Amino acid sequence: MNNRKPIKKRASLYDAHFYNILDYFILAILVAGVLIFILYPLLCMVKQSFAGTEGFSTEVYKSIFSDNLVLVKNSVFVGNLSAFFSTIAGLLVAICVWVAGKKMGKVLETILLISMVSPPFIASLAYIQLFGRNGLITKGILGLSLNPYGWLGVVVMQTLFFASLNALMILGMLKKMDMSLVRASFDLGASSGYTLWRIVVPLLRPILLSCYLLSFIRSIADFGTPVVIGGRFETVSTEIYMQVIGYSRLDKSAALNVLLLVPTIIVFVLYRYLMKKNEKVIDGNSNKTIEAGNTFRLRGMSAIVVWLGAGFFFVMMALEYGSIFLNSFSRNLRGKITFTTMYLKALLERDMDTFVRSVEYALIVAIVGSVIGMLLSYYIERRKIKLGGVLDFIITLPYMLPGSCFGIGYILAFNHSPLKFTGTAAIVVLNMIYKQMSITTKASFSSLQQISIELDAAARDLGANKFLVMKDVILPNMKQAFATGFINNFTSGTAVGNEHFVIGWDHEPNVTGYEIKIEELNDNGTVSRIDTYRTSENTLRVEGVNGYQIYRMSIQSLSGDDWKSGYKDEQEGYDKTASGDTNLLNNSNDKDGIPDNVDADYNTQGWNSASGVLVKDNKIYGADSIVELQVIPETRPEGPEGITVKGVYKGLAVSWKSHKKAKDYDLYYRKVGTGAWTKANDPNEPKYEDSNPTNDIPDNVTELTPEEKTDKDELIRGTSYNINNLEEGATYEIKMTATNHHGTGGLSKTYLGTTTKLINPIVPNYKLINTPNDKTNHIVSAKVKHYRKEEYPEGTTPEEIGMMTVDNDYSTYWMNDSWDGGYNWGALGITPHITLDKEYTIDTIRFTTRRDSGYENQGFSDIKIGIPVKDGETGGTIKNGYRYIYPSVKAELDKNKNKYYTLVLNEPVTTSEIIIAPSTWPGDSPTISEIKLYHYDSLKSDVASLFKDDLMLELSEGVTQEKIDELINRAKTIDPESMEYHPDQDQLLKDLQRAQDLLNDINLSDNIKILDSGIRNQGQTIGQSNNYQALGVAVKPGDKVNIYIGSSRKDTKFNLAITQHNGESSTGYQVYNQKLSVGKNEIVIPESKFNMDYEKGGNLYLSFDSNYDEVQNVQVRVSGGTEIPHLNVNNLIDDAANEQKVKELIREYIKNLKSYVATLPSRYPSQVSAEDKINNIYRYDAETSILNTTDIEGERITLSLPADQVLKGIQGGLSSEEEQVQRVYDTLLAWEQIMKISYAQQGLLENPVDFDGDGKITNNKLEKLGGKSENEYFNANRAPRNRINIKYQRMFTGAFMYASSHHVGIGYGSSAGMMTGVPFKLDENGKLINSEDGQLFGWGIGHEIGHVHDRPGLTYAEVTNNILALMTQTYNDENSSRIEDGNGYEDVYDRVTSQSVGVPKGRTGLAMFWQLHLAYDDSYTYNMIKTNSDGDLDNDTFYSKLYS
């Protein structure tokens, strides 16, 4: 009776009818919220996934099942594993807490609650720090080097992270369990283990299934863990992010989201079915529940299993949060760990506003979301409302989607009236509330199951209505579920900021708006850019600004359209030199170029308007109308990029790219194979000491606050530094950090550099004349006329200096007193002049430069050889009885990479005197340490004479077996004086074997390349500069390569380019320092400028340099290097009549590519040492190994991409050879089409046009062409004759593509997508026939090519380049553009109506430019290639007319 009386009394006081209405009203609000804020956004997303160009379409799903099905499998695979193991872990932990006793149980339960606070990626980072390759435990304590990445790492971290919530949910059910069943088991003699596994655990099946479902859904939706730990193991959630951010494919992102629903639906239906079958055997009567710890203690194997499993979990949590806590309140400086509150102070002083705002949002989400979730759970599970199962299903859906994806649904649903929430806090709060709703409802249901249904019936019998039953019976018994939902929602409510600036001002009376002028200042204080804004608000936010850039901001007031106050410096009586007591009156600082908001060290400061001085703690700039502010990066800088390391004698010259977020740097180095790192520029005490020499990084130098950075006075300001006093001939690792006012950021990648040493070059001695002896043999004298006197002891004679060049002592040398050793006529005869003991026939001379102080790699602008004039000899320059002639010059490297020069005369000379006359450049002086002269040997020319042509494809007349045998015998004969063979013996024997094969009529399979002389950097290039043609060969520095060039014109010169595979933007390629000629070119591949700790090398390319015709037959054959897959369809792909021929070439290419990729790992060693890396020997790595490469050439493009990724793109989702051939064919046509679109957009022509219709192209002036003839108009508007190169490159921070004049660089993960384009196809009547299928590689490629093709004077950065991307995106005139997909036109409207002037940045500016196309172009976009190149100028598109 005591329990009935309060309820009866309450029932008698309130109107039951009112409470029933209130009950239904609450239910209606809850259901409406679910339908509007969950179902409606998801339906918008589903609709988007089926949105084709002509309505309903399933094409995007076809592409997913052909290209991305493996991602779905990956997500389901990891989801099931994580769900299984996290449920098991949660069960063991929950049992441990349940049986631990009251006090210990509360402690452990608190730990579970705390472990749910951090986001998954924080736990993942801690996992890597503890157990990664260089982890504190794995590497630091155990000495192991484990790979934490991949699917296994994802499963481990998700298991640990999901186990906490699972344990709390299971624990809630255990606490409500009917313990009479447990006591009955004990009374019948059962052990604690038997009771646990046979009685307790089976009763937990409903909650275990609930945990499994929630964990499975959380795993599929998890984005942070796969991104941080997944490595190359990709899931649907990571791909969705890439489709949105990387390719702007909302349709494909939406489709992938829809596919995520499939496994969830299956699991959900199974869950509901099993739950209905499962009988509720747990009675929630509190009289039957007691603390488990008072009932039994686990013993034996069961105790071991539970305590080991739970103990492992709690140890992992302790390690994780212990490391996070210690790092938050300690600092490690040079091995000393001390307590600090600096981080907390930094939070309170700098980021408190952002933190408070984030907490406010999180609390709102947590409280409101938890209440709504519990109410929904009550109505669905307890009240069994109609269609409750459907409602529960809808609630479950968003939880399995990544947050960014559910956000896409919200953008599509709530960006227009009447529910326009975009740009407000409401959309964030609502999204997070309903995104996490499934957690609270499932946890609430678990507790509802423990509340006896008899309590509901008893309350109703006593007169309580449904509302009061919920209020007084249900909700008080669900506290555990409320806490679980609260914690989860709190974690998901955090936010981060971005770089921008905001300025504000007080409203002025009687004005309607304001005009703000933003001037960007150069380093010297001059104005480089002006933007003007108008607004009626009293704040302005400007984004897309540059770090450390100084901006001058001026403001004036407006009243309607007729009145302006004028800017301060425009007003009458303004005196720029005036000073006063307030900032407004102090004009001297208005335009001094010195920022008002920071000092020289970027420390924040403010302007005190009363005193007129800068004060550190005042963040108000003062009441002034002109201020100069510097944009300071919001975060610490990333590690520097673009580092180059050049070896000098006992030193390294290091340089790097200027950092966008920092100007100060630290540089660390260590010799390869040693442990501790040394800090460069470390003059002060105490010196830097590496606290852990066993790992691969300098310790305690990253992620430092300004207070922790105690050696600021030792920072390097600039972009270069020389490290001296190193070991000679040693290789060093280089790492760097950058520092700004926020502190020091992370480390750079590792770069390598090798110091030079005084080691004698190994120069060939075969047929040497001046052989070594006590004195050099056959040398009578050697003298010089000019030399640098300060280099030699006083009294040293010119004869003694001259003999230093032939004394076989590489430490002595001649050094000239100026740069000119014979470049100009007057300097001839001053350089080393050697006299021999008799006349010798000579055609080859070698010499080395000075071997220290950087001269060991000295280059020369000019080298001449002087010999005495003889009767009948002509040519060269005659001076003082000597004839000076030009030899061919080749820089060579010995096996130790020491440089020497080989000079070869066109014809051998017979002489007893010889002068070597080298010149450098002004500011330098030529040096020579040793000169070597050689007897003429005709072996090389005799072998070359065996062949009729330059490519050695045909034998000369009269070649016999005897002749070949005689030459083979000579090539295998050792020089008795030097005991050396001919230095080119290997190549000579190869050429002789080739001659033997030709004589034996063996059919040689040569890889002959045909060069197109029409590919050139001439005329209008619109920013692209790649005129190189691929040779299909990969090489490494030091490789000896022979390039045979055959041509119908013999005086043509060529440029050779060597790329760096996966190089940085500054090291993408280098041009060989000598021109190549028709015939045989012997090349030693030079050192790469790429200094990172990866394999050096790349591919070979040729371009025409000089003396070539419009049409010229040029063939090339390469001997040496590694042949790579190469497809060349230039002059074929653009003609449909060649389709079958092109497809046969593609078919053969695909076969070669498959075979080549399969052999790549076997081409590399399985293990390498530090010494191997010094010698450029590395293990196979798909992203960095130089042989993983292929070249594809079309008419307007060259693709230089990773071979395995090209194959992946070709094969993705296709099984038959014909399908793969068709994909490559379509892709190449798509590449040609995107280039044609860009040319047509700019009004460029690839062929002359007959504008007057007379059937001829003439030089007659035409009025319609502005007085130009047809030829003149074509030449003025001719499309580029070179090609754009889509090249695999190393990406800089934050990029996945970038643009340069030579190439568009793309990352490894983007490369496969370069092989999946589909051109838009037109029928014979010009109608589009594949509107839904056409695809021109997505937004990124159009964006980057647009950067290359942006024209001077018509460019707005990051705006006009996107016109091409929009053109290709909407080429079928049906696809929606990126502007329509958002609020682009609304932003334009707001901009126009704000009375702002100037070109806005970002999407708003782009939309305004795009409207010109929409307004003025009334024909189909897909006809622009045709209409912009016909004889009618009137039908050209707007942009074509603008550019031409």
Give a verbal description of the structure.
The model is unreliable at 1-14, 277-294, 479-498 and 607-621 (pLDDT under 50). The protein starts with a helix and ends with a helix. Strand 14 (644-648) and strand 15 form a beta hairpin. Helix 9 (180-187) runs antiparallel to helix 10. The chain is built from 40 helices and 48 strands. The chain is globular. 37% of the residues lie in helices and 17% in strands. The protein is of the alpha+beta class. Strands 23, 25, 26, 27, 28, 29, 30 and 32 form an eight-stranded antiparallel beta sheet that branches.
Keywords summarizing the entry:
1444 residues; alpha+beta; eight-stranded antiparallel sheet; six-stranded antiparallel sheet; 40 helices; disordered N terminus
Brief write-up:
With about 1450 residues, the protein is an alpha+beta fold. The protein contains 40 helices and 48 strands.
Largest sheet: 8 strands, antiparallel
Number of helices: 40
Shape: globular
Uncertain spans, ≥5 residues at pLDDT below 50?
Answer: 1-14, 277-294, 479-498, 607-621
The secondary-structure class comes to alpha+beta
| Mean pLDDT figure | 82
Please specify the SSE layout and strand pairing:
Layout: H1 4-13, H2 16-49, E1 51-52, E2 55-56, H3 59-67, H4 69-99, H5 102-114, H6 120-131, H7 136-141, H8 151-175, H9 180-187, H10 192-203, H11 205-221, H12 224-229, H13 236-245, H14 250-277, H15 300-328, E3 330-333, E4 336-339, H16 342-350, H17 352-382, H18 388-396, H19 403-413, H20 425-435, H21 437-450, H22 453-461, H23 466-474, H24 479-491, E5 500-504, E6 513-521, E7 527-535, E8 539-543, E9 550-559, E10 563-564, E11 606-607, E12 614-615, E13 626-630, E14 644-648, E15 651-655, E16 664-671, E17 678-679, E18 716-717, E19 720-723, E20 731-740, E21 743-744, E22 751-754, E23 779-783, H25 798-803, E24 814-815, E25 833-848, E26 862-868, E27 877-879, E28 882-885, E29 888-893, E30 899-919, E31 927-928, E32 930-935, H26 939-944, H27 961-971, H28 985-999, E33 1009-1011, E34 1029-1035, E35 1040-1047, E36 1053-1059, E37 1069-1071, E38 1076-1077, E39 1079-1084, E40 1098-1106, E41 1114-1119, E42 1122-1123, E43 1126-1128, H29 1139-1159, H30 1170-1174, E44 1190-1193, E45 1197-1201, H31 1203-1211, H32 1217-1241, H33 1270-1276, E46 1284-1288, E47 1297-1299, ...
Parallel strand pairs: 43-44, 45-46, 46-48
Antiparallel strand pairs: 1-2, 3-4, 5-8, 6-7, 6-9, 9-10, 9-13, 11-12, 14-15, 15-19, 16-17, 16-18, 16-20, 20-21, 20-22, 23-25, 24-31, 25-30, 25-32, 26-28, 26-30, 27-28, 29-30, 33-41, 34-40, 34-42, 35-39, 35-41, 36-37, 36-38, 36-40, 44-45, 47-48
